[in-house]
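thought: fold this chain, then report.
action: predict
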Amino acid sequence: MGTSYIIDAARTPRGRGKLGKGALTSVHPQELFAQVLRALPQRVGFDPREVEDVMAGIVSQVGEQGANLARNAVLAAGWPDEIPGVSLNRFCASGLQAVNFGAMAVGSGAMDLVVAGGVESMSRVPMGSDGGGQDGGNTQLRKRVFQVPQGISADLIATLQGFTREEIDGVALRSQKNAARAIEEKRFARSLIPVTDPATGAALLAKDEFPRPNTTAEGLAALEPAFVALGSAPAGPNGETLDQIALAAYPHAKEIRHVHTAGNSSGIVDGAAAVVLASERYVKEKGVKPRARILAMASVGTEPLLMLTGPAPASLKALRAAGMDARDIDLWEINEAFAGVVLQTTRALGIDPDRVNVNGGSIALGHPLGATGAMLLGTALDELERRNAQTALVTLCIGGGQGIATILERV
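observation:
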């Protein structure tokens, strides 16, 4: 396989994902992604007619986010009719999976120029809007494995790992502080595409809207656990609660300690992101200067009830493919779906916490499901350049028990 180059990466700011309250809630998700597409040729200097495919991750593919959003965003951006688009769903990793598929296309020589990323308008199309839940309501599947909601899994992981509430809140506080510093120092400025009203052109949002820079340890400690009531809800065929279903698979836990709250879990936001990927042939023929290349990509399946432990084995798989180990990575972006996921991954791989999520993560900035993976890649690339560092690894946990990882290296 040949080299997959990253030419550029861009994203919208993240807007609060509450209808009528966030700055981006008036923007149709097709238009949100289209604004990133429209900005990329001006930033990079490529002709949209050269793009051979547009790949977009979207998790809730229903209503405004159905009907092949990627193709409709191509049309909304005013790109040529000849440019196709495909929408895909690998839950929280959808945006990074789109990038990986694009990298496979240009690295194999099947295509020369691809734009890949994702979008999620969680205010207009709330999480769970597709009605599928975790398993599509398949009662036969539930006889084999009963997948509990992710919040229950996150608390089960924290219980099994012995994480304290203070440790969990510590991840959240660090995320808020790092994000506040990054915003103050304009570390996100290179990648940000300000969003405007598609109808009037009026400015809507130019910086991330979700962070709470005044967060304190005391404020986080005062928040009630978010998943106690959910855990006690009857869900099994014989009236078993979700906590009981989880404990039946992990009886040595004895009881689930609910430690995740609204303050140490990822935020609900709107946003879009895209990455421009090129083949070696395209780079040479066009004289384009790439920003980075992708060294390795990996995806794995993991135990589906525990569900959120995929980042560690996915990262190890990618590291093996690149002939590297964890110590060779300068910066880590571990998606902060829940604070316990970051702690579990960091512990499993022996990572220096000072290399992890140095500009904050989804706890502070928010997690626009389909877009997050592409956003994290762009954030990592910008920070590599700012620090004059070389390598970064981006990884996310995934519903249903999966993990994904991508390693990039500055050129």
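thought: worth noting. The CA atoms of residues 245 and 274 lie 39 Å apart.
final: tokens above.
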